[in-house]
Design a protein that fits this description.
The chain is α/β, with parallel strands linked by helices and about 450 residues long. It is about 25% helix and about 30% strand. The strands form five sheets. Strands 14-18-17-16-19-20-15 form a seven-stranded antiparallel beta sheet, with helices on one face. A five-stranded parallel beta sheet has the order 3-2-1-4-7, sandwiched between helices. The chain has a four-stranded mixed beta sheet with strand order 11-8-13-12, with no helix packed on it. A hairpin with a 4-residue loop joins strand 9 and strand 10. Helix 3 (about 70-90) packs antiparallel against helix 4. About 40% of the residues are buried. The mean pLDDT is about 90.
């Protein structure tokens, strides 16, 4: 079998190539360049050249052919343009998930196939397992990697069965420490290379500067929301009452109840009136905002689309005992709302919704019918520990009710849902059931 390894210059893909070579596969490596621009990036303009250089040395060391492919056009069109569009709508996309679905296991896979590859291998920490579904068709499960600190199945939550059928994950059954040890033993130049960070193939960026390539900077107000607003909010009270009544039996909630709970709080009713006063010995007339028990204008920002829920850095708001976090953004009004402290009520929610056209089932046998309920474990961001939740399939989409409130449920991000492990089997790995955009 001929296998193309996506060789990035990192230790994970290097060891993936090494293992496949040792296992007797006909292996070749291909390095993909997906980004040329450097505006907004923090690493300069030649990091990809260094990665390519390391990847080429690794291929030579292992003894496999090395190829280069430029997929920057596809990457801009199918990942970066999507990213810009989502931020413009006030949503926070996950480009790494899109990169795997649209580039690594689509555009890259097609290039590899043109060179004769039967399969594509990557350095992802996840596993796949063959299964025969009730319809008698052979399909593939996507399972977590065994390293709890490095599992990357979340990033592959949008892959199709066709893509999985062509994928190999050689290091999914290894710990990161074992991968580095094997790379060092084989004297691979990537053995001590740090893991990449930031946006897939772009790297670490100054996000506002990066987004300003397409999104205009417009100053607006930063509004800090105080506790009394929640005491006066009819929606907040209604949501709390519904969760108190149905929190342990969410399947008894109506579609209207679930839609209400999955809709974020709206802070637009916090308005500020001005008053004039005289200041100084010359009694100069000045204008100021009247005190408001629900909030205050705490600062200014450069554009609501540059901020995301849960963000702490870049707010430049001082004078607080605890950190300040973004709790909501309003693109139309160009406002961002913030709250003080990790336990601020605006950071926490228990219910989210995946629209019907955004639900992606990993296998047909896993699909839920309208009215069906299923216990699962879920994560709403990479490296979050799996959280206990209930999936409720309704006409309006897939509703997710968490057992405990979740911090920073963010529109535009991907949520991924996993089967409950078999308690009688300590080696049972959770299968990824489905995913979708919040």
């Amino acid at each position: 079998m001929k296998v193309c390894v996506g060789l990035s210059g990192g230790v994970d893909s290097s060891v993936a190539a090494l293992l496949l070579k040792r296992q007797g596969y006909d292996v070749f490596a291909m390095f993909m360049q997906n980004w040329h621009d450097t505006e907004g990036t923090l690493h300069g303009d030649c990091e990809w050249e260094e990665d390519k250089f390391v990847a080429e040395i690794v291929a030579r060391k292992i003894g496999i052919p090395f190829y280069f492919v430029d997929l920057s056009g596809e990457y801009r069109q199918r990942v970066v343009d999507y990213m810009f569009d989502e931020y413009a709508r006030g949503r926070t996309p996950n480009p790494d998930v899109l990169c795997n679905r649209e580039i690594k296991f689509d555009a890259f896979l097609k290039k590899a196939r043109e060179l004769g590859a039967d399969m594509v291998a990557t350095g992802h920490y996840c596993r796949k397992e063959e299964v025969t579904d009730p319809d008698g068709v052979r399909r593939w499960k996507l399972l977590e990697g065994i390293d709890p600190g490095k599992d990357q199945s979340y990033f592959l939550c949008q892959l199709s069965q066709e893509q999985l059928s062509r994928a190999l994950f050689p290091i999914g059954g290894m710990l990161k420490s074992e991968v580095r040890a094997l790379a060092a033993e084989a004297d691979l130049p990537s053995a001590d290379k740090k893991d990449s960070q930031g946006i897939c193939f772009v790297g670490k960026v100054d996000l506002p500067v990066f987004l300003q390539q397409k999104l205009r900077s417009v100053e607006g107000d930063v509004v800090e929301v105080f506790g009394p607003w929640y005491d006066a909010s009819k929606k907040y009270k209604r949501d709390s009452e519904l969760l108190d009544r149905f929190g342990a039996t969410p399947w008894e909630m109506s579609d209207t109840d679930l839609l209400e709970l999955s809709t974020p709080l709206d802070y637009s009713d916090i308005q500020f009136e001005t008053e004039t006063y005289r200041s100084g010995k010359h009694h100069i007339k000045k204008t100021r905002f009247k005190d408001n028990p629900f909030g205050k204008i705490a600062g200014r920002h450069e554009g609501a689309q540059f901020y995301t829920i849960g963000q702490r850095k870049g707010l430049a708001i001082g004078g607080h005992a605890h950190p300040i976090f973004v709790i909501a953004t309003d693109i139309e009004a160009n406002r961002i709302y913030v709250g003080e402290g990790e336990e601020h009520k605006g950071l926490w929610r228990r219910v989210l919704r995946i629209a019907p056209d955004e639900i992606h089932w990993m296998r047909p046998a896993l699909e839920m019918a309208v009215g069906e309920t299923r216990r699962c474990r879920a994560r709403i961001r990479y490296r979050q520990e799996l959280q206990d939740a209930v999936l409720l399939m309704r006409e309006k989409g897939l509703f997710v009710v968490f057992d405990k409130p979740q911090r920073c449920i963010t529109p535009g991000q991907f949520a991924a849902f996993y089967a409950l492990p078999d308690p009688s089997d300590p080696y049972d790995a959770p299968e990824l059931l489905c995913s979708g955009v919040i």
